[in-house]
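BUG-481 | component: ligand-complex export | severity: low

The export step for nicotinamide-adenine-dinucleotide jobs runs without errors, but we want the raw record kept on the ticket for reference. Input record follows.
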Amino acid sequence: MSTSGYPEVVIAKGDGIGPEITDATLRILDAAGAKYSPTFIDIGEKVYLSGNTSGIPQEAWEALIRAGIFLKAPITTPQGGGYKSLNVTIRKTMGLYANVRPCFTLKPYIPSPFPDMDMVIVRENEEDLYAGIEHRQTTDVFQCLKLISIPGTQRIVRYAFEYARQNGRKKVTCMVKDNIMKITDGLFASIFREIGAEYPELEQEVMIIDIGSARLARYPDRFDVVVTLNLYGDIISDIAAEVSGSVGLCGSSNIGTELAMFEAIHGSAPDIAGKAIANPSGMLNGAMMMLEHLGQHDVAERIRWAWLKTLEDGLHTADIYRQETSKRKVGTSEFADAVIERLASAPALSSSSKLASKPVQTLDYHRKEVKKELLGIDVFLEWQGGKPAELGKKLEASISAPFKLKMITNRGVKVYPDGFDQTFCTDHWRCRMLTVDGNSPRNADIPKLLQTLVEAGFDVIKTENLYQFDGVRGYSLGQGE
Ligand code: NAD
């Protein structure tokens, strides 16, 4: 809370069209009587180019931690030069685990083939392939680690169900690829089913992401709340925004326990920066979500009415201007003036409140105790020696009790024993070692095994321990194992 008694909101005007759309948005907020005390920070391109590869100076972090609320305009990430995406850095450093993106159509005011589309995508924001843990492991093969956790999944799934319940939504769809990634995406789906049982009033479905995205592009009006993993969420939220016909209109929130960040979903649009023609609606929608988060529902609702009325009256920025549906093409500032003029009037559109996004609180995580047993080890080798059987025989000759070689896979497919000559092999081999008697190996057995392999001339590039948890296998089988 600031000295004015109003909540402190940290504001970054961003790059490209950022300053234009931020000024327009703030003028509307002020005219509508939003109660906030602004602190402006500089982040982004200027900071990157001054030599700070994160794009965020120390004083900006301090302001964010103090205020806990952030209204952010889009940022330009300079190409190359090792600059890290500032959005990803803020989301992960501050634990902004839920990315909430309402995507809706406003037909007939904004043309769209889907008049009834009104969905909210709840995207997990911290885990998955976005952990950014990548390695080149051999001459041929590169790896990106996909990390999915129980607390991370519980948090996002609970958030999606609570969001649906508190915002009067009817259905929650979970999108995963658990037919292929049975352990990681399978965890996400099973937690969805488990937590879903606590929300019997909500219709629930699990969809495979490939057909799910296809349906979302073709029948977006059949979806309500969609919850999914980070990468899938990134992709489908752009599909949803695109089919709604309104990439320039949608806002999003990034919710964490200590900080909430609100923004437009689009980027800094350098192609139209400085021309005063950008649509401020995306940022304005982000700001409305922020007002809801701050409990200023009445102010958010007034702005929403006025914004819809402006669109309904046919005052459109260039990105949404169509001769058949628009009355006048307006610039950024003129659009803001038009919204301000209409703040006192209610639009003919009756369902404006369905666009409101009420924030939700989620539960703490309590870790359950499990019995974890080591069963063996996968040793990954770089080997360019020849046929898989040659490697298999060489390994069998080198290792001794308590380990025995169970199988070798190449890119996940079993190639030894009993592989197919047709399988294409790279130089990256996963060699599964289990104990001879099926008992747990002792921890000290593993370094001895690795020592033996290195002394026999093998190039060990990494290992993965094979565990079971409460008697359930914690690793996938090789294809053909
Ligand atoms: P973009 O969203 O900036 O632009 C895509 C197209 O949409 C452009 O033709 C642009 O003119 C148009 N557009 C976007 N917003 C508009 C608006 N409000 N009004 C009218 N037209 C609009 O995507 P891009 O060109 O791929 O990226 C440009 C820069 O933005 C890059 O540096 C990228 O890294 C950055 N970016 C930032 C964020 C963010 O800060 N959250 C998100 C995405 C991209």
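Assignee comment: Attached the raw record above. The longest strand covers residues 372-382.
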